[in-house]
Amino acid sequence: MTNAHPRKAPTRRQLLTRIGTIAGSAALYQAMTSMGHAQGTDFTSPPVLSGAKRGTRVLVLGAGLAGMLAAYELRKAGYHVQVLEFQNRAGGRNISLRGGDTVTELGGAIQKVGFASGNYINPGPWRIPYHHQGLLHYCREFGVELEPFVELNHNSWLHSSRAFDGKPVRYREFASDFHGFTAELLGKAINQHKLDDMVSADEHDHVMTAMRQWGSLDANLNYTKGTISSETRGYAKALGGGINGAPTPSEPFARKDIMRSGLWTWLAFHERLDMQTTMFQPVGGMDMIGKGFNRQVKDLITLNCKVTSIQQDDKGVRVTYNDMAHAGAVREAQADYCICTIPLPVLSQLDVQVSAPLKAAIMAVPYASSVKLGLEFRRRFWEEDDQIYGGISFTDQPISQISYPSHGYFSRGPAVLLGGYMFGPAAYDFAGMSPQERIEHALAQGEVFHKQYRKEFSNGVSFAWSRVPWTMGCCSMWSEQARKTHYKALCTMDNRVVLAGEHASYVGCWQEGAILSALDAVTQLHKRAQGAS
Amino acid sequence: MRKILFLSFIASLSLLGTTHPAQADSASAVVGEVQPLTTGEDVYRHVCQGCHMPDGKGATGAGAQFPAFAGNAKLKSSAYPVYVIMNGYGGMPWFSGMLKDDQIANVVNYIRTHFDNHYTDAITPADVAAQRPATPPQEQ
Question: Which residues does UniProt call coiled coil (chain A) (predicted)?
Answer without folding.
Answer: none
